[in-house]
Amino acid sequence: MAQKEAPGELVVATNRKARAAYTIEDTVEAGLALMGSEVKSLRAGAVQMADAFALPRGGELYLHSLRIAPYAAAAAFPHDPVRPRKLLLHRAELDRWEAKVRERGYSIVPLVLYFKKGKAKVQLGLVRGKTHEDRREDIKERDTRREMDRAMRRR
Predict the structure, then answer these.
(1) In this structure, is residue 139 part of a structural domain?
(2) How many CB atoms lie within 10 A of CB 109?
(3) Is pLDDT above 90 for 75?
(4) Which helix (H) or strand (E) covers residue 41, if one does?
(5) Based on the structure, what is the number of domains in the chain?
């Protein structure tokens, strides 16, 4: 089930895998063009976004590999669970991100999927893949922070 985040926002899913595997350089909020049964499934929390990514195509941005489970009550006209979904962005943002993706090493991945004032939104991240050394640094930093917190609690 979805969880409340801020007033007027209802978080449906977060992509924790993306935060571990990538360095997030920029974020943007985008709308999603969905079918009615997809919205009902999202409200029920039936979504998997672990391997999802966005690609520019024909001057537009599409979200791929986002799995929204078919809505059980829409048996007559079910939607395709992994179809590419159009993302709604301002032209300037789209052009800027499209130019970055053409550069080597940049990708666009969804970070959070939520409802804002009744509309389905996705927070996209412009990311660069972490190297083995980057991951080791993150682990060291996390361990040091934990040790500092423990020392502060003892005092």
Answers:
(1) no
(2) 21
(3) no
(4) helix 36-43
(5) 1
